[in-house]
Amino acid sequence: MRGRLASRPVGEILREAEQLVRAGVKEILVISQDTSAYGADLKYAEELWRGKPRRARFYDLAAGLESSGLDPAALCLSLSARRRGG
């Protein structure tokens, strides 16, 4: 059984990606249980990332990851979310 989906804030994901790039990572795979649900539980909360507003939506996450320093061809996005309750 799966618990409720719990989206990670967009800024948290982008900060983690930036740290990975600084550590030399060349490719990031972002996955989830239900990509279409990303951000719904956060009410698509908005955060500033590098001076630009980014909402907890797949498109904004992808745009933020592209600005992280990775080659866009190295991004394989399916979205990152955590499950609550097991």
Explained architecture:
It is a single chain. The protein has 86 residues and is α+β, with helices and mostly antiparallel strands. Helices cover 26% and strands 26% of the residues. It has helices spanning 10-22, 58-66; strands spanning 4-7, 28-30, 46-49, 52-55, 75-77, 81-84. The protein has a two-stranded antiparallel sheet with strand order 1-6. The chain has a two-stranded parallel sheet with strand order 2-5. Strands 3-4 form a two-stranded antiparallel sheet. Strand 3 (46-49) and strand 4 form a beta hairpin. The longest helix is centred in the first third of the chain and has 13 residues, at 10-22. The radius of gyration is 13 Å and the shape is globular.
Summed up:
With 86 residues, the protein is α+β, with helices and mostly antiparallel strands. 26% of the residues lie in helices and 26% in strands. It contains 2 helices and 6 strands, in the order E-H-E-E-E-H-E-E.
